[in-house]
Amino acid sequence: MARAIRSIVENKQTPEERRASAMADVETAIADNAEAAVEFMKMIRLLQQRGALNIVNAFLQKSDDIMKIIVDQAGKPEYAGGLKNGIALTQMLSSMDTRVLHHLVGSLSQTSKAIEEGKVQKVGGIFDLLRTLRDPDISAGLGVMLGLVKGIGHSIREASSSQDGTAAESKKAP
Amino acid sequence: MNKLTSESGSKLDIRINGEAVQAERDKPVLLAVLKSDHEFPHICYHPALGPIETCDTCIAEVDGKLVRTCALPVKDGMEVNTKSVRARFARREAMDRILHNHELYCTVCDNNNANCVVHNTALFMNIEHQKYPFHPKPYKQDNSHPFYRYDPDQCILCGRCVEACQNLQVSEVLSIDWDRERPRVIWDNDVPINESSCVSCGHCVTVCPCNALMENAMLGEAGFLTDLDPGLWESMVHLTKEVEPGYGPIFTVSEVEAKMRDARIKRTKTVCTYCGVGCSFDIWTKGRKILRVEPQLEAPANQISTCVKGKFGWDFVNSPERLTHPLIRRGAQFYPATWDEALDYTAKRLAEIRDKHGPDSIACISSSKCTNEDNYLMQKFARAVIGTNNIDNCSRYCQTPATEGLKRTLGLGGDTGSITDLGMADLVMIVGANPAESHPVLSTRIRRAHKKHGQKLIVADLRMNDMAKRADLFLHPTPGTDMIWLSAVTKYILDKGWHDQAFIERHVNEFDKYKAWLAPYTLEYAEEKTGVPKEQMVQAAEMIHNAKRFCIAWAMGVTQHITGSETSTAICDLLLMTGQVGRPGTGAYPLRGHNNVQGAGDFGCAPVYMPGYERVDDPKIREKYERAWGVPLPTNRGLDNHQMVEKIHEGTLRAMYLKGEEMALVDSNSNHVQSAFDKLELFVVQDIFFSKTCQFADVILPACPSLEKEGTFTNTERRIQRLYQVFEPLGETKPDWKIIMELANRLGADWNYQHPGEILDEATALTDLFVGIRYDRLQGYNSLQWPVAEDGKDTPLLYEDGFPFPDGKARFHIPEWVDPVLAPNEEYDLHLNNGRMLEHFHEGNLTYRVEGIKQKVPTTYVEVSPELAKQRGISTGALVRLVSPYGKVKIHAVVTDRVQGNELYLPMNTPDDEEAVNYLTSSYHDAVTHTPAYKEISVRMEVLEPDGESPIVRGNFRLGNPRSIPGVMVENKWARSDYEPLTDTQETVASRE
Question: What predicted TM-score, i.e. pTM, was given to this entire model?
Fold first, then answer.
């Protein structure tokens, strides 16, 4: 005889039992990944020693507020301009011929080495300057710089002409 | 047929950008272009919807003219140039106009999942700047609906959603109001979504090419940076706009973010467990959270279609009310137990009862909601472990009579074709079925064909349901008399000489006998018995005569009568008489009610059939299984579930093992069934919730729903499809097949299945019908429709090469007429019809645990006709008591012209004892199959309160006002004064068709 009943005795796990079963799960997980767990603890110790955990905790606790401050600040024209420059610079770098960049960076480090070693040539007066032009290194470098100046000028002139309305833009719906 | 969607045609030679290519005749030029350049822009075109022509992004120069390639059919010798300056300019301009309506904040957008059409198109087109700055529209987001939201500010007005709603789902709710200064999508006559006639099918959300329409469950969940408080979120969008020198970098970041999402969002293919249509889709999850159901074009039954249950009805899986550990009855309470305790106890008791009273004192009931593998093991358990043929499943409650009718006449117990055949037919006749609510996705194919392609529709039903409203001819017969008017129509066709003589001579036996039997079924007689006017039967016959391709779909309005098998037979006879079987677009479609009704029967969960409908009483078959299973098998005839109840009352059936069925509420005459359960010595119930049936159990075993297990389902098209595991089993629950195996092994079985695939391969290898079905042939969205030959060749359309009888011929079968029982009389004066509603499934144990569905439809109700309401002095909201000879329910009424006269309608969808219809139904049944005559019951109605609050609450689509329009009506966009054409001609698909 099985009359319809609705009453279910809940599986009454005591808080201690729940805790014990959770602890058992954690133990198993650690035992299964012993090596990773040890490494992880090392990292935690280092972070704690350097005070980094403190900072991270504070940041996480207040993350939404902090994000809002940063994002709002970053959105202001003056800072947004900076970010824009950053992006523009990145774009410029990525569009440059890597060989040219290599030469440029190479020459900079050569120069600084020369400065360190006190091997920088002194220029004494305008004639001395003119004389240095005969040096093939100086003449090649100057050529590059003139090219750069020309490029900048071209870029500026183009931008100002489009502001005059030479580049048309119209409104369009929907 | 719509030529610009996706069916195959012959090949033509055209040139694209100077190169000779082959393209399919009548297909859009766009598809030919996409073959060589898959990044070619197109936003509003969707393969399931065809050309919409709103976005202008797919423009190319064809034979010197700028045209939308989505809307232009391929013609021989065409010259297509996608790279000309004019074409590129036009596409670029089109994209600029789109971005005027859409803010690109992809990284903080929940739709940034690598499949956003607008994002990807902008990326492929190398869009760097917004030519027309984004301007917000003067409308707020619509967050009224529990499952999805509309953000007008992100809406690009492509109209995909409108096309899907008007012409694929055909619920006709959405439109674009092109007359406003800033157009937008509106619901009904511009009401909040949740107050419209929206049926929540989700088509619009699925086809939206951006984030304008999003599932609420995705919002703030899909992205890493999208769950920010609104102020911070706006600041982020502002910042991205401020610093962006161009869209390039933003796309890079969003691409990276989208990739990161892959790591934590899992996409798993599954098959729906609601209804027999067999929709399959990807389900997106994050941990145990369900983010989205994303149907795929390659899904064989539904493509991108879903209904409210498949798209949004899955949260029950995480319900806190799930059973999570076994329970054992002790005294008046259930106590938690370990699996070992529960299974040991069950095995011990079963063994005791078997030893004392014999194996036939035990019965097993399997489930049409469980997988084929679960079902195969359940019948193997009954036969090989217990040693009885007492095994059945709930298809007995619905479609067994249809199977009987089909087997008598055509030979095989399944739909003769596929859902695509229903879409292809010139005429569909629906008898006693309400597919718009019970088989929603299947019904979309009929509605679409009816609206777009001129398909004709006949509906015979008691209720003016959605399909009836759309029908070209609606027949309302006296309840339970369908067999008579169907036979009269058949006779009229024969008398007129409209029958298919050649087909009958070649393919059908018993013509003369059947012809003689038909003689008394004159129109006059039928009109007298059924109340259907002669003219309507003549009209039906004429429509059938004029149709080259004709399908009949039927369901429980036919089968749940004492003549269920007979009426099903009459339907098949009519199809044979007109030669409407075995060709594309023709045939018989008994719409299966549950996801795996077909499979539960296919895999042997019936007393007389082994898997593959091989008869238990055939010694050769039995020997085959005895060899395979290594045990002797029972020879006694088994009990079906109706007989089981009787045998419990008689005291000879003492124990029952039931899984996945709410038998206490869904079998007819619930009081009678429940009092039987009272008498069982041992009742083991396996379920996912503590159901009404569980209340009678001695042991309750917690099982897994479909999302927590693997296996296969077989849909109404005989299509077998695989589901993959989405979640780990909750708590201590286990998949049904594992539970059955562990119980079997405690009774000495020694089964060792590691995976459902092994079970399926064992099951199919033993049958003729399914021999080619192999688990590894069902990977991903691959499916097979039985019969399947050894080499894997399946059969989407049955009987193309004859019928499975010894002489290859079908046969007319003479149905036997019996007058309906329990017709209205003086004491019980109202006929009580019953069935389903769209939002809920079965008794509602799953769907009432989905919060959004429960909000929209919190309860069932009884529908009362306006004339009856007037006569009894009640209005919507009245509380009434319905009393039958078998029991009573108390329920709120809704006055509606969906029902007429003295006919009531009570949806079965309630787990509430006070309201469940089967407290009213009887134990009368179909003579052959024992399917209960649920639809033959009369009641009296006692008014408890004459009025009250309507049980149909705000959010119920039945309160809305749909608007049928041709579609997105792009002409209205083109007619706007601010629209400058980008093509050289302005010709629509509509004007060409």
Answer: 0.89
